[in-house]
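<amino_acid_chain>
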Amino acid sequence: MEGSIVPYDCIIVGAGPAGITAGIYLIRKNLDILILTLDIGGQARLSTDVENYTGFTMIPGDELVRRFEEHLNAFNVNVLNERVKSIKKENDLFKVETQERIYWAKSVIIASGKKPRSLNVPGEEKLVGKGIFYTTLFNAPYFKDLPVAVVGGGNSAMQAILELSKFTKKIYVVNIADDLTGDEILKEKIKKMSFIKIFNNSKV
């Protein structure tokens, strides 16, 4: 089904920080835009304490996303909750097809972001939500006073470690690299916690 006969100036795929910022810039230029996304905020929604977003020394991920939504609403940005199936160039326009309809645009910005990576190990899929989680935003209390393993050594892993440290003092880090690889400020916080055991050059 056709969603728009007159083409948009731009369609943005994704509404994480990059997609939202692009949308606000474009609408302030008085351009006709549409954002297609499955959620607002992207991975920022899954973050606990965000310390590297300009303008905030620290802000919870869900609060940052709430402010994203307020900013979008203030400019009346057109946001639709639709999954994009395909994007094709036809003559001078882009044909953007979702599961619901077809849109046309003069330009497209793809800001679809990233997804958490699975380990692809036996048993993982069956245990997702039953002890295996890809975010600690809502699930850290599940591990209260329990031993927990965090796989990874980048910023996401270190943020998870810091959040878990509020609930348990039995944290094991399985890191494939020689050392933690995220921001130094996070590394310093973690290495001051003697109850955290880090296994570098290791993998599940």
